[in-house]
Amino acid sequence: MDENYTVLVVDDEKVIRDGCIRFLEPEGFRVTTAANGREALDLLETEPVNVVLCDLKMPVMGALEVLEITGTRYPDVPVIIITGHGTVADAVECMKQGAYDFVTKPFRIDHLVLVVRRALDKQVLERQARDLQEEQARNLYSLALEQSRLRTIINCMGDGVLVTNRDMEVVLYNPALSQHLGLSNPASLPGPLSNYFDDAALRESIESLLQDAGEDPDRRIAQELTRGKTQLRALSAPFFGPDEHVLGTVTVFHDISSFKEVEEMKNDFVHMVSHELRSPLTAIKLQHKVILDGLAGELTEKQRHLIERAHDKIDGLIELINDLLDVSKIEAGHGRMEQVPLNLHEVIAEVTGLLDARATSLRIRLVLEQPTAPTVIRADRRGMEELFTNLLTNAINYSPDGGEVRAEIIPHGNYVEIRVSDTGIGIEETEIPKIFDKFYRVKDPSTRQVIGSGLGLAIVKGIVEAHQGSIEVESRKGAGTTFKVLLPVVPETEDCLVGEA
Ligand code: ADP
Question: Distances in Å between the alpha carbon of 437 and those of 196, 387, 456, 464?
């Protein structure tokens, strides 16, 4: 028995107290004694006691009075009544008052030890049960707290939230989503996804997330959806149970209507200003040409030089305006791009042919490598010309004298890869994610003389994406850069349009 268990023996007969000490201590109990009920209560206040053995009748405060007080002050401590012959009825009365058991005098030691042990077992079990109950109550409380916290967060979010189970039924949505979708009455849950969205793209995304969740648990799908006048950006992801099985999906909807409106206004503005600037600039350019051709009279050497410089500056301005117009057209989705059969080699050869003179003047070798069979894709000719002009012009501009610029066409089944590589100045790793941003130019003293707007690669990216392709960059500072463009080889069908709003 655990040495820490203390038994308090309360009896006015010293012989009983001593007897209990003699027999219980060898059993491993610590025994403490009191001669009457009052002494016992004093002791209980100062010492931890596990079991009380209490004589039924004592001159100062008997067992019934002791029970009355211990029942409220020490409800965990079992009280065993020691009674004489003929007082069993009183002992039963004590049991009614909350005593755990009683032993009759003279008692057998083994019986006494058994009763004490049983009382202790009961006490331990009761404590364990109470601890478990308390823990359960605590867990339930924190679960309820967590749930209420989550519910409050979800309900207060400005973004819409939609949760589906793995059968694609909606199991939860928040007030922001009701507002986005204009739902006036709360729909009953779970309900079919089509009650909320008739959008096939969202349905497909959720379906594919549920299907692929086992292979790619971190997969997210972002898309833009339109509901009436509201434009939403939706980000969907799967969620999992403790066994890592997919349980459903969560989609967060962000209202981007005002952003789109501002974007459209900005594009319209750029479009309008660029148009207004282009016509007078073209007229000035023509007038300069007339002067340079001597049609407005003889020019001195100095006058020719000044007009030629002005002529170049106007060319730069017209190029910038054309870039701005291209970017705003692509961004607004107005970049009408045809899909017509194109021999890629022919397009790139034409572009390299046009840039050859500039490359030669900078002593840069311009090489075009192509497969033996012609690679025919379906794409927009003007778009492709612009794409490769921008990449090859950059490769030439950012290469020192004596370098090499190479264009390669590498077919890969359904895709064709076009690599434009140079042996130029290269791009720092930290700059690479930014170079496709509009107006972004790497600040490098060695390229200060290169005139540019920072729009070329933004246009390139827009054209590639309008053709469902992708673009990657590999570069090492000082060693050169390679741009890899992947374009789908579209099967020969009737002509159609891509990249249209
Ligand atoms: P621009 O050439 O008009 O500055 P781009 O959008 O075409 O604008 O390119 C953005 C930036 O990316 C450039 O300013 C340049 O710093 C970097 N860059 C693009 N192509 C290359 C290249 N081939 N080699 C090194 N840097 C390049």
Answer: 36, 16, 10, 15
CA of 391 to the centre of ligand 1 (A): 9
For residue 119, the Cα-to-chain-centroid distance in whole angstroms is: 56
User: What string of pLDDT tens digits covers the 501 residues of the chain?
Assistant: 455 799 999 999 999 999 999 999 998 999 999 999 999 999 999 999 999 999 998 988 989 999 999 999 999 899 999 988 667 788 888 889 899 998 888 888 889 999 999 999 988 898 899 999 999 999 999 999 999 999 999 999 999 999 999 999 999 999 999 888 887 777 777 888 888 877 888 999 999 999 988 888 888 999 998 888 889 999 999 999 888 899 999 999 999 999 988 888 887 888 788 888 888 899 999 999 999 998 888 999 999 999 999 998 898 888 888 888 888 777 766 556 777 889 999 999 999 999 999 999 999 999 999 887 788 898 899 899 999 999 999 999 999 989 999 999 999 888 899 999 999 999 999 999 999 998 899 988 888 778 788 889 999 999 998 888 999 999 999 999 999 999 988 655 544 444 333
Please state whether beta strands 6-10 and 51-55 pair in parallel, antiparallel, or not at all (unpaired): parallel
Between CA 471 and CA 469 the distance in angstroms is 7
Among 457, 461, 463, 472, name the best residue to mutate to test ligand 1's pocket (greatest count of ligand atoms within 8 A of Cβ): 457
Residues with CB under 6 A from ligand 1: 390, 394-395, 398, 422, 424-425, 427, 435, 440-442, 452-458, 481
In this prediction the pTM is 0.54
Q: Could you identify the residue written with the tokens 């009075």?
A: 65
